[in-house]
Design a protein that fits this description.
Structural class: alpha/beta
Order of helices and strands: EHHEHEHEHEEHEEEEEHHHHHHH
Shape: globular
Number of strands: 11
Number of helices: 13
Largest sheet: 9 strands, mixed
Oligomer: single chain
Distance between the termini: 45 Å
Length: about 290
Amino acid sequence: MPRFLIAESETREERDARRDHAGKSSGESYAATLRQLAPHADITIVAPADADAEPIGIDALERFDAVFLTGSPLHVYDPTPEVERQIAFMRAVFASGTPAFGSCAGLQVAVAAAGGTVRKMPERMEAGIARRIAATADGRDHPLLDGRPCCWDAPAIHGDEVETLPDGAMLLAGNAATRVQAAEIRHDRGVFWGVQYHPELAPGEIAVALERQADQLVDAGLADDTAAVRDRAEQLTALHRTPERLAPRWMLGVDDQFADEHLRRTELRNFLTHAPRLKAEASPRLPIAVAAD
C-alpha cells in the first residue's frame, strides 16, 4: 500500500474559507483526486504553514512514497512566518529523497526551497483556463508530460509565477502567459515534478475559485464586471456536469485535454507511475560527521 503525504499550502483561515465555498480545502481536494487514482493508498494531510504544526523530520518523510504540495493564495516572495515554514518543509522533503509533486503555489514553494525565485505576474493573472501550453524540447521527452499533445489547455488560477528556476531544474512547458508551466527540480537528494496549472481540479472547482475572486479578476482587467465572471463560472460548471456536451466545450473553446477527466489528470497519473522509480533513484543520505573528542 503506497503512503502519500499531502502538504496544505493554505493557512488555516484560507482552508476554512475554501471549505465554505467549495466544500473542501486544497489538500482535501487533492486527497479526493488521489483516492480515485490510487484507491489503496494511505493518505495523510498536514499543514506545515501553521504555527502550531508539528515539524516533520527527514526520517518521517522518508517513510512516505510521495509528497504532494497544494495550491494556495500564499505569496512565496513574502517573507512571512507561514511562507518560511512552508519552504522549510519543502527543503526537508528534498533532503529526505522522497519524490514530490506540486501544482500552482506548490511549484512555487519547491522553486523557492531549491534556490529559485517567484514574483507577481507583471502583466496579468491567468484565471480559469491556461491556454496553449506547449512542451519545451526537454519536456517533449519527459515522462511527466507523456501523452500530452503539442499544445493543451488546463485548469489554472494564479497571479504569481516562477521568475527563475533553480540550479538543477529543467523547464518542461510554458505558454504566452507564463514561461514556466511545468518543471522538474533536482535538489539535495530529491526530485520534484510540478506544474503551474491544476491537474487535480475539476472545472466546477475552478468555477468556484473564479467566483470567490470575482472582484480581483475585474480589478485585474480580465473581466468587465462580476457578471462576466459569473457567466464564465457557469460555463465551467456546465462543462463539469456534462463534459461530453458540445455546447459548453464550444463556449469555453476547449477540447478533450481540458474536458475529459482522465486526460486532465495526465501529469498526476504520470507522476504516480514514476514515483517508485524516483524514490529508488534517490541518492543515499550522507552520514552525519561526529567530531572527535
